Amino acid sequence: MGILDSVSTGMKGFDKAIDMLRLGDNVVWQVDSIEDYCYVVAPYIEQARKDNRNIIYFRFGTHRQVVEDLTGIKIYEPDPAMGFEGFATMIHRIIGEEGVKAFYVFDCLTELLAFWYSDLMTGNFFRVTCPYLYELDTIAYFAIKRNVHTYDTIATIRETTQLLLDVYKINDRFYIHPLKVWQRYSPTMFFPHYIDGDEVEPITASTEAAELFSNFNWTEERLDYWHVTINRAREALEGEEKEKEEMKGLLIDLLIGRESRMRDMCMSFFKLSDIVKIAGREIGTGFIGGKSVGMLLARRIITRSDEDKAYFKPLLESHDSFYLGSDIYYTYIVENGWWQLRTKQKTEEGYFTYAPELKEKLRGGRFPRIVKDEFMQMLEYYGQSPIIVRSSSLLEDNFGNAFAGKYESVFCVNQGDPEKRLDDFMDAVRVVYASTMNEDALHYRKNRGLADRDEQMAILVQRVSGDYYGDYFFPHIAGVGNSSNLYVWDKEVDMEAGMLRLVFGLGTRAVDRVIGDYVKIVTLDDPMRLPLIGYGEAQKYSQHNMDVLNLKENTQESISVNMVINSDIKADKNLFWVRDFETERRLSEIGRDVSGVPPILNFIKLLKETEFPEIMKRMLALLADKYNYPVDIEFTANYNREGELHINLLQCRPLQTRGLGKTVDIPEEVDEKKCLFYSHGNFMGGNVRLPVDYIVYVSVKEYLELKEQDKYDIARQVGLLNRALKGKNAMLMGPGRWGTTTPSLGVPVHFTELMNMSAVCEIAYSEKGIMPELSYGSHFFQDLVESGIFYVALFDGRKNVVLNEEKVLEAENIACEIIGEGCAVNADVIHVVRTEGMELYSDIVSQRVLCSEQCAGKMF
C-alpha cells in the first residue's frame, strides 16, 4: 500500500466520518443520477485545487460533464467504442504517464454499457484499472448507477475498491451511506449519514434508518445488460419490420462486429430470428468470432432461397454449436491477474518478449465460478458426445486474413464422469487461449499490420460429426473444398469448378501436411482425374492411416485404415475403397497369400457413382457467388445403410488467391545445360515471371547424414537466412517437404522461417524416400497463397524433369556473408548463392515451369 497520507474529500464532516481518504484510495459512488455524483465531485475537486494536485478528468460518457469548471484540469476523452482492450489500454497508458499521486475523476462507469452491453466487461475494466491507480498512490472517483448492474458486478467492484459508498437524495436532503471503507473503522462509520454543508450526522436510530431506507427502490433480480438487450430483441420479433431491422443491426454489432464486409453480408442474409437464436447459444458475452460467423453464414446462404433450401436442406446435417463469447477470454486474463502482462506484450518492444510467459500462464489459469457453471450446463447438454473446441478469433476467417492453422483446435472425446469432462474441456479452452501467443500467429499478425488490432479469442464448440464404430468415433468423409482451383497441375483442369482435399476419418489429415501418407485430391470438373500418380502407383499414393477418437482411451489418435476395414461402418464400404487387384495378382503369381492385402482407399465409387461431387461443386459455386469471392470450406459427410448422405458444413472463409497472371512465353526449346531446373506440372501460383537473385539450397546427401537434432538446427538456420533475405528475390530449394514435423521427410522449418521467400521448391529423391506433397487445400497451402509464394515440386529422374544441382553447389557459398557476424550456418549442408540474370517462368496452359538464365544474361 502507498504512504498513508490523509486527504480530504472537501466535506469536513464526512472526512471525520470515514477518517479521511488515503493516497491509493479508489472511491466508488452508487448514485441515482449524475447530479448526485456531481454533488460529491465538486468539493473533492475544489479541495484538490487548493492542495495543488495534478487533477485528471476522464470524459467518456454521454451524460452531462461531471466537472463543470475545467480550469487547471487535464481532460482526456478515450472512446469506449474502440472496445474493452483499446479503451482499458489507453487509460492504463495515460495513468502511467501521469505518474504518482495524481487525482482522478472518471465519468459514470454505467455509461460503458451503452458501448459494451456487458456488466462483465464493466467489472473487468474496474478490476484492471483500480489496482494500477492504487499502486501509484492516486485517488480516483468513480460512479455507477444504482440497481442497474448485476450483483456479481457490484461484488467485483466491492472486492476491488477501497471505498464503496451510496449517495441518496431524498426530499432535497443528501445522504451518504458507506458500504466499504478499507482499513478504517469507527462505531458509526457504516451508518447512513445526513450531509448538511460541512456537517455530517450519522443516522443511528432504528426508526430514522427504517424510514430512510423504506424510500429506496430495491430490485430482486438484476440481469446483465447483455441479457436485457437479448430479451428486447426477442420482444422485437413481434414488432414492426423497422424495429426488427434496427434490433438485428444492434445484435450483429454486438455478436459479429461493426463496419466490415462480413457484417454487411450478415445483415443481408440473416433474419432477426437467426441472430436471436445464435445469441441464445452463447456462453458469456461479446463477439462469437470469425470462424463461428463463417460457419453460420455459409449454412444460411445455402438454405436461403426456396430452390437451394429444397436441394441442400435434406443433405445438411443439423448443428447444435455453442459459442464462447470473446469477453470470457478477457475475463480469464483479468481473473488471473495477467492484465499488466498482457498490456506489456501488446507493446512494440514486448510483442515477442513477453509472449512466451503469457502463453505459459494462459495454459494454467482458473475460470470464474459463473463461467464454470455455464461450461457444465453445456457439457450436460452434449452428454458424452465428442465435441471439438475451435478457435474463433475476431480477425480469423475474414477477407484477406484466414489465420489458417495459426490457432489451435482441440478434440474433447468427452468420456468419463462430469468432473473429468469439465476438466478436459477447460484444458482445451486454455490450449486455444494460449495459442494466441503462438509464434506463427504473432508473426502472421505483425506481417499483416494487425499487431495493434484488437484480437480477442472467442471459441466455437461443435459436436463432432460421425458415429461410434467399436472403440472408435469418426466420420466417413472429411475434407477441405476450394471454389477456385487456380493452383492446377494439369492444363485440362477447369479452374472454376473447384477442388476437394478428401480423407477417410477425422478431417485433421485434410488440413495438415500429412506425414508419410497421402490424401485424395479431387478436381470437381473431372473427379476421376489422378494427380501425380503413375501406372501401378495407386496403392502408394492412397491414404493408409486415419485419425479417430479413441473412446476407450479418451484420446485422439492415428490408426491404420486396415484396423476398420473389416468393421461394420454402417455404410457401403465400396464407396471408399477398392481391392488392390494388381498387388493381389503379383502375390498370387508367386504363390503368396493375398487375404491380407489392404484395399486402396481412393473413393472411386463415391466420386464416380454418387452425386457427392456434384453436390460439393454446386455448394462451392453458390457460396463463392454470394461471397463474390473464392471460398474455402471444411466439411464432413456420413452415409447410412440406406445410402443416404448427410453433409456437415463446419467452416467457410474467403480464399485469398493470386490469380492466373498474364500469359508467360517460355521457349519451346530448352537448353538443359543452361537451366537450373525444368518440369511439366506440379507447381502452384499461376503464370509467373519472377527474378531470382538468391538461392538458398539444402543439399540432400549432407542433410540426410545429419543426426535428428542437427536437422532441426538446419531448419533454424534457414530461418535466419529467411530473415536476412527479407525484401530480396530469393528461392528456397531442398529435399522433400518444407515444414514437415518429421525431419527424415524434409526440413522441419516453421512457416515463419520461409515466409520471406519468393519461391519454394521441394525436390523428390525417391530412392532415398524423400517425396514432396503438393498440399492443395492444406493450411500450408493457404499460407503460401496468402504470402504470394510460388511453389514447385521437382521429381528428379522423371520424364520431362531437368535438375542441375551442380550449378548451385559449384558456385560460391555466401551463407555466412548473408547472415553476417557470428554466422551459425552449416555451410556443408546449406548453400546460398547470388545469381545474375536468373528468372523463374511458369505457364498454366502448357503446364511448364522453368528456372534459367536470361538469354542475354549470365547465371552465376
From TrEMBL:
It holds the Pfam family PPDK_N. SUPFAM superfamilies: Glutathione synthetase ATP-binding domain-like. Keywords: Kinase, Pyruvate, Transferase. Coiled coil: none annotated. The keyword Transferase applies. Residues 288-673 form the Pyruvate phosphate dikinase AMP/ATP-binding domain. InterPro entries: ATP_grasp_subdomain_1, PPDK_AMP/ATP-bd. GO terms for molecular function: ATP binding; kinase activity. It comes from the Bacteria. This is Pyruvate phosphate dikinase-like enzyme.
